[in-house]
Amino acid sequence: MAVNGDIVRFDNVGLRYGTGREVLSDLSFTLHAGQFYFLTGTSGAGKTSLLKLLYLAQRPSRGAIRMFGGDVITLPRQRLPAIRRRLGVVFQDFRLVPHLSAFDNVALPLRLSGVSEGELRQPVADMLDWVGLGSRADARPATLSGGEQQRVAIARAVIARPELLVADEPTGNVDPEMALKLLRLFEALGRLGTAVVVATHDVNLLGKVPDCLIMRLDNGRLSDPTGALRYPPRREPAETRA
Amino acid sequence: MKVPPVFDRALRRLGGPANDIAGARVLPAARLGGPMPWVIAIMVALCVLAAGGALALANFTARAEAGLNGGLTVQIVEADPVGREAQTRAAKALLEGDRAVAEVQAVPETELARLVEPLLGDAARSSALVLPALIDVRLTDAAPAGTAERLRSALATVAPSARLDAQAAWLEPIFGAIRALRWLAVMLIALLMLASAAAVWLAARNAFDANRETIMIVHHLGAGDAQLARLFQRAVLTDAAIGGAIGLAIGGVTLAFLGARFAGLDSGLVANGAFGPGDWLLVALVPVIMAGVALATARRTVLSRLGRML
Ligand SMILES: Nc1ncnc2c1ncn2[C@@H]1O[C@H](COP(=O)(O)OP(=O)(O)O)[C@@H](O)[C@H]1O
Ligand SMILES: [Mg+2]
Question: Could you tell me if B244 and B44 are in contact, meaning their C-beta atoms sit under 8 angstroms apart?
Answer without folding.
Answer: yes
